[in-house]
Amino acid sequence: DASRVLLGSSSLPRGGDGSATFSILVTMVAEESMAEGMIVGVTASSPSSLLAPPESSDEVPRSWLAGLDGAVWDGRQWGICPWQPSKLAVGDVVVVSVTEEQVMQIIVNREVVASVQVGV
C-alpha cells in the first residue's frame, strides 16, 4: 500500500505577501500502476489533536487538498480540478500556497494549476 499521510509539526512560514507556502521537488516518479498521483494540501489541525493516524488525508479535520486524478477536497466534499499530478516528472517543483484571501493554490513549475477556497 503506497498511501501515506504526512503532517508537519509547525505552522507554514509566511512570505512577504502574507501567503503560507511549502514546496516539493519531484525526485522520482512511481510506476504506471500509480495512475492517480499524489495529493497535497494544508490543515489547520495539529497532529497532536488526532486520536489515531488517519488512513487518508481527507480524514484530517479542517484539511484542504488537491491532486489524485484531478480532485479537490474543500473540507466538506470532493470536487474536480484540472491538475493531474500523475503527469509530474522528475525535476518538477510543486508549490502549495495559501493566500491571505484563504485560497490554496497549487503551482507547478511557476504555473497555477489548481485553486481551492479554504476556511482556515
Order of strands across the main sheet? 1-6-7-8
Multimeric status of the protein: single chain
Count of separate DSSP helical elements: 0
Q: What does the main sheet amount to? A: 4 strands, antiparallel
Rg is: 14 Å
Low-confidence stretches: none
Notes on the protein architecture:
The protein is mostly beta strands and 120 residues long. Helices cover 0% and strands 34% of the residues. The strands form two sheets. A four-stranded antiparallel sheet has the order 1-6-7-8, with no helix packed on it.
Keywords for this entry:
mainly beta, 120 residues, 4-stranded antiparallel β-sheet, single chain
Question: What is the structure about, briefly put?
Answer:
With 120 residues, this protein is mainly β.
